[in-house]
Fold each of these.
Amino acid sequence: MLKIVGMVLVLISSAMIGYMKALKYTLRRQTLRSFLSSLNLLITEITYSQITLSEAFAKLSETSESGVGRFFLLVSRILNSNEGYTAGEAWEIALDKVENINLSQDDIKILKSFGKGLGNSDIYNQEKNFKLASELLKKQLTDAEESSRKNERLYKSLGILIGIAVVIIFL
């Protein structure tokens, strides 16, 4: 009886590891989509509402998904801390500090590059910066969807198959 329980636990653990690995692809896609929609909202807030970046980030933190919302809240808090950070510096500090954001290093490089141009020029150049970042993030999203399609099913199946192989070995 104990042997059967052990085999079931090995199988469940192995399958869970496979599903957890596959979940990273799903979360990356969701995070990229959330950043894309947030950047579109941010440019709208800056262009039409003409509120400060700090207020725009605080507003975005309320409407964005959890990880991205925490990021925008952190940027807003850094800007409001009266420590003299520019918007670009606050953006980069927040990207370094925020945890579990589910992005690749290339995604973060794009966001850091976008942040360097944030708040440094007029609205026309800001719009160009937003469009460039949006296009690059859309390409990253396309790549993420493609790798997700390839790898999610693989990791899920691999987790189950490795569990079955371990169980067979112990029989």
Amino acid sequence: MRDPQIGEILVQPDDLKQKVREIGQQISADYAGKDLLLVCVLKGAVFFLADLMRHIEIPCEVDFMAVSSYGSETDSSGVVRILKDLDRPIAGRDVLIVEDIVDSGLTLQYLMRNLGSRKPASLEVCALLTKPDRRKVELPTRYVGFEIPDKFAIGYGLDVAERYRNLPYVAALTDG
């Protein structure tokens, strides 16, 4: 019996696999011959990053950042605190931020400004999911997996109170 908090499935496992493979192939082509560093935004993007890296066919490195945005449990204020910073400098590197979801865009805007000030050769974004209806700031997102409706999403790394990250699909959270 399925957990009653797991609602409508927004992205099926097979669709996730296919899209991640396509994005990995596109990144391989776009960054061929470049010094690619993938920056994973913890914790939600870990599953996406792990699967994505398996489909990137060029040499690349990975680093991690953890950020916390102030606001309600489901709404970011855009005021961000870095909980874990990168381990190495990124000056002169081609940096691709790997995000699980772009919601309001405020946290990502902060990351773009912060990392951009460190003088990378390039700085782009790869997001598994976006919610266009919730966007407060427009940001260039080079790679996008899926646009989803304005529902609280769980699964494939996304959580509520640290639960449901292990679901093999993306679903909407219910009140149940």
